[in-house]
Write a structure and sequence with these properties.
- α4 links the parallel β5 and β6.
- The protein has helices spanning 2-19, 73-80, 99-116, 134-144, 168-174, 183-187, 191-196, 220-233, 251-254, 262-270, and strands at 20-30, 37-45, 53-59, 85-89, 122-132, 155-161, 210-215, 243-245.
- By secondary structure, the protein is α/β, with parallel strands linked by helices.
- The longest helix is centred in the first third of the chain and has 18 residues, at 2-19.
- The chain has one domain (26-167, 196-270): 3-Layer(aba) Sandwich (Rossmann fold).
- Residues 1-19 form the signal peptide.
- Pfam families: BD-FAE.
- GO terms for molecular function: arylformamidase activity.
Length: 274
């Protein structure tokens, strides 16, 4: 069945290309090296239904040490086909960067989007953040910790897809960071930094609206941290209730590769297009 689905997607790729336009490797800020720049991809519909369309910035996961924006082009095209301009940024991975540098870079991707997305048919007043796994952590962090943005007014909503790292302070107290997976670099060995990295401790009435997916077959640490995050979030946003899906961690994002996924209709409802 899965082989048939992949074959169907391959057959439909020309349609996706006709329905959307991709702008690849647009520089948005300087990288770690003075000679490097971080880049993003933008996807816009070829025949938009309005002059200004809502925008989703999708941030990929990969345990903070792997991943590539170009892997997720189908997500950009699937949203663009539905009249959502989509931005997919790269960011510096561990061990070349820690969580703080990554979060600052994603905040800069948001600022670039505010300043330039109108050139691609997007509405800078309708920007939503979406992230899977480590990407979910980074968007939750910049949406809650005031260190990263002077104001979160530009963020109309936050979509967490099986987000990791929502309470690294509690997690790393039980399982201190090791060199494995570059965790000593990503999180440091300072408990104060673990807390600063944890979005759960920065939730407040100022937080943007959240929309949350959690896999019932995902990693136990993700289940625990999402449950704790939701309990605290509900003090400020009592109507938020996660959508639980019978999936493991990776399928929670690959489901978005399928253009017929029900997730798109749910997200369109969240951003006000349904």
């Amino acid at each position: 069945m899965k082989i048939n689905q992949y074959l169907l997607i391959l057959l439909m790729l020309p349609f996706f290309n006709c329905a959307s336009r991709k702008f690849k490797d647009v520089p948005y800020t300087k990288g770690i090296s003075k000679t490097d720049s971080l880049k993003l991809n933008v996807f816009e519909p070829r025949q938009p239904s309005a002059e200004k369309l809502p925008v989703i910035i999708f941030v990929h996961g990969g345990n903070w040490n792997t991943g590539d924006k170009d892997t997720y082009g189908l997500i950009g095209r699937n949203f663009a086909k539905r009249d959502v301009v989509t931005v997919i940024p790269s960011y510096t991975l561990s061990p070349k960067a820690n969580f703080d540098t990554m979060a600052k870079q994603i905040a800069e991707a948001l600022q670039w989007t505010e300043a330039h997305i109108a050139d691609y048919g997007g509405d800078p007043n309708q920007i939503y953040l979406m992230g899977h796994s480590a990407g979910g952590h980074l968007i939750a962090l910049i949406s809650t910790n005031p260190k990263y943005l002077e104001t979160t007014k530009a963020i109309k909503g936050v979509i967490l897809d099986d987000a990791a790292g929502l309470d690294m302070y509690s997690h790393l107290q039980q399982q201190p960071p090791k060199s494995e997976n570059n965790y000593k670099t990503t999180w440091t060995e300072d408990p104060e930094q673990w807390k600063a990295a944890s979005p759960i401790y920065f939730l407040s009435e100022a937080a943007p609206p959240f929309f949350i997916y959690v896999g019932t077959k995902t990693y136990q640490s993700i289940k625990i941290q999402n449950a704790a995050f939701l309990e605290r979030l509900n003090k400020f946003q009592p109507k938020v209730s996660p959508i639980y899906l019978k999936k493991k961690h990776v399928p929670m994002v690959t489901q978005f590769f399928w253009p017929w996924s029900d997730r798109y209709e749910e997200i369109l409802g969240f951003i006000g297009l349904k």
